[in-house]
Amino acid sequence: MSSLQEIKQRFGIIGSSPLLDRALSKAVQVASTDISVLVSGESGVGKESIPRIIHSQSHRKHNSYIAVNCGAIPEGTIDSELFGHEKGSFTGATGARKGYFEEADGGTIFLDEVGELPLGTQVRLLRVLETGEFIKVGSSKSQKTDVRIVAATNVDLLEAIKKGKFREDLYYRLNTVEIRLPALRERKEDIHLIFRKFVADFSDKYHLPAIRLTPDAVEMLQNFRWPGNIRQLRNLAEQLSVVEQNREVDSENLLNYLPAIGKSELPALYNKEDSSGSSSKGGDFSSEREILYKVLFDMKGDLNDLKKLTMELMKHSTHGNFEEDNSQLISKIYGEEDEVPVSPPRPAEEKKYLPIYKDGDTELHDSTFDTDHETVEEENLSLQEKELELIKKALDRSGGKRKDAADELGISERTLYRKIKQYDLQ
Known about the structure:
- The chain is of the alpha/beta class.
- It is 50% helix and 11% strand.
- The chain has helices at residues 4-11, 18-31, 49-56, 78-83, 100-103, 119-131, 157-162, 168-174, 188-206, 215-223, 229-243, 251-257, 261-264, 282-315, 322-325, 327-334, 371-397, 402-409, 413-422; strands at residues 37-40, 65-69, 108-112, 133-135, 142-144, 148-153, 177-180, 212-213, 248-249, 353-358, 361-368.
- A five-stranded parallel sheet has the order 2-3-6-1-7. A two-stranded antiparallel sheet has the order 4-5. Strands 8-9 form a two-stranded parallel ribbon.
- Strand 10 and strand 11 form a beta hairpin.
- Helix 2 (18-31) crosses helix 3 and helix 14 (282-315) crosses helix 17 (371-397).
- The longest helix has 34 residues, at 282-315.
């Protein structure tokens, strides 16, 4: 049995991510058996490599290997493609034809995008899995086949079952062993390595100097979400190799080739719908509330800083008509209900006293009571409590790892360290 490194070299797989190695090890372990395998993962992660690895490491390796894209075959002809047909079974059937299951007898058949199969075809496939038998279109004779089936999908089959688009019995028959390939964003340590491999290939292909990335561009590359995964990264490498004149690319230039980075990386609020179409509020509400608290906290801090800065500018302004000339801006910042802050300060003897009721008489407390200041203090205290709660939850979810907690909160690790010391969370 080949080692993981030999398999990676043979099939052109790049990376050393633990999640990737686990998927490959699982494929090697099940290769010697005949059990069905379901490969799951997002589009573009390289699911087609797993069935080839399984076939090459099995006792069927000297027999046929056929890959079928179920989503690319029209619904009206897919039964004929998979199981074959007899002469005259439908218009245009001028002769008998073998299907993929007959051609792959003794070997392996890979059903890519198996979630796209029509329900009628799913029934036929279930029979092949259970008994090894199938019937050609237009025939009444049952035939035997000995094939190893590996299926792949990028859709949630359990969700498709709820919607009635996929048979539950077929799902459990296919999913004897599931191998999940990680998305590219889950393999950040491999992204730059894969990019360099693609760049080297395109440099040889187009006879151009290889593209190099600056450290800030590498960081941007690793933090991008990559919805198209390895396929999208390959396209980016080819585009940079052909179009970019400067062979050293920094983050500013790279951003021009990732136009969606400003949008795709923003947090998004959503309600997950259940099978009845209604929104589920239980699990999502708390996370939405945390995000809103964080956004509001940041906005409150920015607003307070803006007001303080504006106050200082107006107090020290040498322009006599500053208040008149900027009345609209002042009103916009402080609101119509607020007094313009550049008016003369109140006399020192003019104070607000906190009334104390004692034995039916009203006495004045010795210390002043600033209602405005008290309101600000209460608001700041409330926001600090929310910030403390967010930090604690992030640290709990990350197992105390500051880097992961900082990434979740959207702040730098250094800032998180200062917050931890501020709230005495060490």
